[in-house]
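step 4 of 6: structure.
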Amino acid sequence: AQSVTQLDSQVPVFEEAPVELRCNYSSSVSVYLFWYVQYPNQGLQLLLKYLSGSTLVESINGFEAEFNKSQTSFHLRKPSVHISDTAEYFCAVSLRTGANNLFFGTGTRLTVIP
Amino acid sequence: NAGVTQTPKFQVLKTGQSMTLQCAQDMNHEYMSWYRQDPGMGLRLIHYSVGAGITDQGEVPNGYNVSRSTTEDFPLRLLSAAPSQTSVYFCASSHLSTGGYGYTFGSGTRLTVV
């Protein structure tokens, strides 16, 4: 079985400050790792993904995440947040074989304070 | 427009009523799934399908039925609504080959059971 833990349910941060959203996972088999973002009253959008290769992955809007196999973590970081980054962020995993099912963490609500 | 279409966007049901949440995609995706989103619990998989005529249960299937008679459509049926089914429901689809990162989510259905 696999599980995803997001330790922080809410993270307030001032505009232009750095932020880290933590994600740990547990799985007995290899997984793909994802971060999804949900803006208010919208569906989910893929922010970034780790499939293989370089353990550091980046998104087009300045977020990055690093896959750490030994710590089974996939933390999301941004060096300087903007008001528009206010949203809920979900870490998720899927198995590398079989159906495409995504397993989500409980989410972290990021609030950027002006 | 290509994507996942969910109807209705909002629905209020009385306890014991039945209804069907509709989901349609026009991307020829083999995989379709239903999730429910509850505060503090993230998204949980209800049912999924890897092709027409093939469905399977996810993490929280009780109280819900699905069928997949065509590639495009994946309706979710609530047989006898209960207040515990008050939630936001998301449908998602992807190609089976994308291993969980090619998801397209619908915009959601907000269901209230009174």
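step 5 of 6: annotate
 - Chain B touches chain A through 26 residues (CB under 8 Å).
 - Chain B has a mean pLDDT of 93.
step 6 of 6: archive
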